[in-house]
Every structure is written in C-alpha cells, then in structure tokens.
C-alpha cells in the first residue's frame, strides 16, 4: 500500500521487543550487499574498531548530531597509502580548537587509530573520514552536559580515478558562510548542500561562491583555481575560505611548471568574477579529484570551452604525487596480512 494513502489512525509503529530483534532488522539492510561500502569504523563511544556495517551508528544525543557541534576532515587512500594524513590531521585539530571541541586523545593516538582502522578494513583505495564531536550527553544547546568528547572515523571504499573530463558550474545564490565558519571544517554543511543541489537542479556539476566584496571564494567542498591568459596560476586567498590541503600542495608543486617555462607564476590573490570568467583555464582542486577541469561557468565557456593543457599538467603533478610522491606525503598502511 502507498504510504501516502494510509490514514494516520491506521498506521502503527513497530515496537522492537528486544535488542536481538533490533539487530536482526539492522542486518537485513546489509544481508544482500556483496561489497561493504564502509569496511571499517572507529568509535570512541564503543572504544574500538567496528567491522559490522549494521553497527556503524552514532548516539542520537551526540552534540554533533542534534546541534552540529563537531568538526571533520578526510584523507585519501590510494594503493594502500594515506595521502597527506598529517597535514589533514593538523587542520582537523585546528578546526577542533576553533570549534571549542577538545580531543579525547592526543594527535599521536588519533593517527594510530586511523592507521589501525584502515589496516583492519583491508581497503586499499578510497578515503578515510573522521570527526571530533562534543560528544553524547543530552539535547541542550550547551555541551556542558556532555561528559566527554567523541572521536569517530570511517573507511569509505571508493574506486576514484584522475578526472579528465570538463564540467560546468554556476554562481551560487546561496549565501556564503562568514569567514569564522568557512575557515573551520565543521559539520554545518547545510549551505554547502543547498549550493550543490542548486547546481544540480540547473544541470551543472557544482557551484561557485562569491564573497560579499565580489571576489571568487570556493566551491561547495573544493577550492577553485584559475590560469589567466598571461599563464599565471591563481588561487583565491585562504583568509575567508577553507584552507585546502590539496590546494596548498598544488601551490608547492606548480612551480615545476614555472621552471619548465609552461607557467609564468604561481600565486594566491583576490579575483573578481569578471577576471575569473575571463580566465583561459579553470579547475576545482580537492582531495580525490585531485583536479577537476571546468569548461563553462553560468553558460559561458571558460577559455575555448575545452579542458586546458595546463590544467591537465597540474592534474598530472598532483596525481603523480599521490601515486609516487615522497614518504612525507604518502604513509604506507601496514595491513595485517603483510
């Protein structure tokens, strides 16, 4: 029967009589799934690593769940190596400090947990994502009723690859986050979600935020970069937007193209929308992309409307760094079977 045709008086919510019955119901969802999309999770509430996807849950009274009081970050997993794990962890703890969320563990233990969780998952490609929350306790606004903060993490099995096809973007009409919140990687992503939905409704891959001064800011969960006709690589300043780890790594690697005479310079700067739309090439920069070429903005072609040669050269630089970069960038996970 169509649920919409059921009268309220006719609907009876099931009451689970035991935890065993509830567990059986939770496992129903995963019984027909051949490959687990989330092969491992860590929860400080449980105090360990979870391999059963049916049990990868959070307490509803967690302050992050009902008040959005938490931060998160991520790291790319490629060929059994965690890319820029320490850089992301450092930003994670900076975000936590700004959000006034204390960590139940020092950085060294957080790092060890993430490595052990990844090893237990046996996943070699995807991402790991992790959260610090004010923790469970009650449903009030203040976290004073939360006895201890909580740390959660999950391995996401994802077969991503280098992006070589161009996409279209739009200018978002959703208000941009103020710098205090935009510069902290927190779980309050409603503006990001609405900006992404707006883009998809208009047939675009994503949207671009413009700040109150008319300068280009960022995408809904990625940084944006431009190459002008003078062959300068330009990324917006990070003072009002999230400081992207991959974007900063791009700024470290791109001077190689300057040395080769392919780029003239690499810099961060304010860019007006008019200047940005007049660029020769445009791209998103993010962890699993690592570069996504942009070929049209608000229905107008960027440059010649094709994926740029320099955009792909930058993509190759980042992808090579992810695949075969220095050990300082790539941490080899000691999987248990090894």
Automatic annotation (TrEMBL):
Family membership noted in the UniProt record: Belongs to the class-IV pyridoxal-phosphate-dependent aminotransferase family.
Phosphoprotein among keywords: no
Pathway: Cofactor biosynthesis; tetrahydrofolate biosynthesis; 4-aminobenzoate from chorismate: step 2/2
Protein name as annotated: aminodeoxychorismate lyase
GO molecular function: 4-amino-4-deoxychorismate lyase activity; pyridoxal phosphate binding
EC identifiers of the protein: 4.1.3.38
Tree of life domain: Eukaryota
Catalytic activity: 4-amino-4-deoxychorismate = 4-aminobenzoate + pyruvate + H(+)
GO BP term, example: amino acid biosynthetic process
Keyword check for rRNA processing: no
Keywords: Folate biosynthesis, Lyase, Pyridoxal phosphate
Enzyme class: lyase
Cofactor(s) the record lists: pyridoxal 5'-phosphate
InterPro entries: Aminodeoxychorismate_lyase_IV, Aminotrans_IV, Aminotransferase-like, BCAT-like_C, BCAT-like_N, Class-IV_PLP-Dep_Aminotrnsfr
Assembly and interaction partners: Homodimer.
